[in-house]
């Protein structure tokens, strides 16, 4: 879902700039069956993966055999020379590594998961997008032809995204025999035209109406099935049906919410007096459709009458309304993003600059980077470095390397070239040198074991680093991070100080961010309950019940017993006042004992009291007999 969310973000940014977007999705034909093991291992080796992992992958792909079974008949085993098991969770990861070279050619506009590839273009007009994306598809097709990767032409799809009021949708002519038609229609007159990618339906204006309708329809079928499994007397335990709802209904209903739910309000990006203010996202009608499915499933979980208030049902089942569930998903997504490294590059840049500006004038810092690009002339791989003494630029360098290389090699060689150049510059005995590298893989190879690819560059770097006491600092994307200052000798002094150092010590920890996320989720849940509890009857509110999204203990009761308890709370049951309220003229409003049926009558009914004491006496008698 991260890929879809990232793409939706890019499209919304384009809409804010009055731009139009064109998306093309591609699918590899027979992806897992056609994977070439030796080529995969070679690419993983070029990517810098350690040798033990490569050996494990080679063992995973070797000595594979298959057979065909038809009822009780089996064919002979046949050895498989290529491909990877489709049922293994490792296979999609391996195929992403297999296609990494293709996706790395344009990391900004190409992305994919396993054998699903997407590429898009942003421009002032759709014609401009189609012209650019046609060239992109041709390059991908050429790469696939050279690397024995075939793309299914029947699965090529294209969608134009725009909020301008026109129905123009140009096609993309890839070759005389291949033309990609944009998605402009849908089966049935009631469905919105949309393109389905990674399970999410993307429509022209990115309203997600088609996606929500599809998810509601699918989840409603499951909710109906759960509702038909039980009634107020018979059926599985309520706790089991609640688990089925959480496991089957909720994920199906809310799939893709990370991409389509922005919250109930957002910051306005339009012009005029509303710019910079919070405006509604107009999600009310879509949330209402999803709420109907949750309410339907809740009525299947609980043994209650259909007139029981929805708020009471949600509380008694421990299930969230749609808005609360969506807010929890949004908060969890934000928490996960905050846990990722380098999520706030502005803060990282400021922190790195603080460290760099405080360096002594004789300190040397070497920045290096690698590049790998493609155009009509072919592939280009090169490196560049810049050397500073203090904060003054003293030397630069650049160069190209063999095209049978990758950006990993360029970064390794660039760091070595920069270090070699820095060692030739005038320096003092106390001069400190820092290598600032943006690739963690290169840093690991510089500090520890050299990879097989560009091994000479790493071994030479090891020799120079050890001889000249060169330090290495990670600077992601040349934005930088602060170094750690936690020396054992200063730990106690730092703990006793009231001054918090800038950098990691001043930033929220993962556990602290998690506490904030839990607090926000709790506030959403409790806020919904405070808002909706007053809508319930006074009889229900007298119970003074709390609301939590966990399984209530009473759901473990049998359905008949649970039905009586819930009816007592909500006053929606076989009671005289209830039948009179809904004008049930044929209902029996009096108990066989002669008194009117009330919620409290069960406790005082003479017949019920006799049955209770009789059952209690029999239980005590059986226990005494068993003990003797």
Topology of this protein?
Layout: H1 2-16, E1 20-27, H2 37-46, H3 51-61, E2 64-66, E3 69-70, E4 73-74, E5 78-80, H4 90-98, H5 100-104, E6 110-113, E7 116-123, H6 126-146, E8 157-161, E9 172-175, E10 178-180, E11 194-197, E12 200-203, H7 209-227, H8 238-253, H9 257-260, E13 265-267, E14 278-280, H10 284-301, H11 310-317, H12 322-339, H13 345-357, E15 364-375, E16 378-389, E17 392-400, H14 407-423, E18 433-437, H15 440-447, H16 455-468, E19 471-474, H17 488-496, H18 510-532, H19 538-541, H20 559-570, H21 576-581, H22 601-604, H23 606-627
Parallel strand pairs: 15-18, 18-19
Antiparallel strand pairs: 1-7, 1-8, 2-5, 3-4, 6-7, 9-10, 11-12, 13-14, 15-16, 16-17
Outline:
The relative contact order is 0.08. Among the domains are: 208-342 and 510-573, no CATH class; 345-480, Ribonuclease H-like superfamily/Ribonuclease H (Nucleotidyltransferase, domain 5), CATH 3.30.420.10; 574-628, no CATH class.
Q: Would you kindly provide a written description of the structure presented here, covering whatever features stand out?
A:
This protein is α+β, with helices and mostly antiparallel strands. Among the domains are: 208-342 and 510-573, no CATH class; 345-480, Nucleotidyltransferase, domain 5; 574-628, no CATH class. It contains 23 helices and 19 strands. Strands 17-16-15-18-19 form a five-stranded mixed beta sheet, covered by helices on one side. Strands 6-7-1-8 form a four-stranded antiparallel beta sheet. A two-stranded antiparallel sheet has the order 2-5.
